[in-house]
Structures are given as C-alpha cells and as structure tokens.
Amino acid sequence: MEAFFFDTSVLVSASERSHPQYEPAWAAVQRVKGGQEKGLICAHSIAEIFASVTRLPVHPRIQPDQAARIIHENILPYFTPVPLVHEDYLGALDIVGAGGWSGAKIYDALLLHCAGRSKARRIYTFNLRDFRNLAPARLRALIHAPELP
User: Fold this and answer.
1) Which helix (H) or strand (E) holds 120?
2) Contact between residue 103 and residue 125 where contact means Cβ atoms under 8 Å apart
3) What is the pLDDT of residues 15-24, one digit of tens each?
C-alpha cells in the first residue's frame, strides 16, 4: 500500500464540518480509514492539530477535551506519526535561512523535511504555495491538495 503524508492543514480541515476545505480533506482521511491509502503524519503535527482546532473561528468553540478526543479517535488510530530527528530541524533551519523565510515558515519546512524522509508517494496540504516554495526539487511534484474522488 502506498503511503501518503498529511500536512496539519488537511487534518484540521477534516476535523470541522464547517471548514471550507472539509469535503476534500474528509475524503482523503476516509481513504486512509478505509485502508486504501497508508496515512503518515509528522509527530509534531499532533500538537499543531490541537492548537489549530482549538483556535478555529467556529461557534461553539472546540474545547480542549474535544480537540484531544478528535485526535485520539479520528487521527491516531489511522495515521502513523513519523518522529522528528535532529537532522529534520537542521534541514528546516537551512531551508528557511538560505531562502530568507521568516516566522512560522520553519514549521512548514520541518514538516516537509519529515515528509521527505518518510518516502511518501504524495504530500497532501492546502498550503500549496508555501510548501512548493520551501520544498527541494525532488519533493515538489509530490505536493498536492486533496481532491474529491
């Protein structure tokens, strides 16, 4: 079975029905849950998903206990977390430093480094522009937004 690496943006979108990108994100997650694709995430994304879901501009707000349950029940049983290693941090630092990128772009570079190490066939993200700009040439063709079947 081929492996697909999921960026935080896709899993956050799949976690809230009112999210504008919910449908394609949910469809991609369902392919993993159904066993058609192997889902990979960066271990760091667990924290990013929690932080993002609890800050979504929805009413009522998703509470911390609800966000933890979403992650425990809908993500972790189906997605294999890929742990970060020292080289991932150094690689991400080199990418943003050499490219003149500042701020939170380092987190995208970190996830890309992790995705590259995971040997995934595809990298799913809704942050296409930044991911493609930050990605080394060998990964650019793997970066796609999830689509409806």
Assistant:
1) none
2) no
3) 999 999 999 9
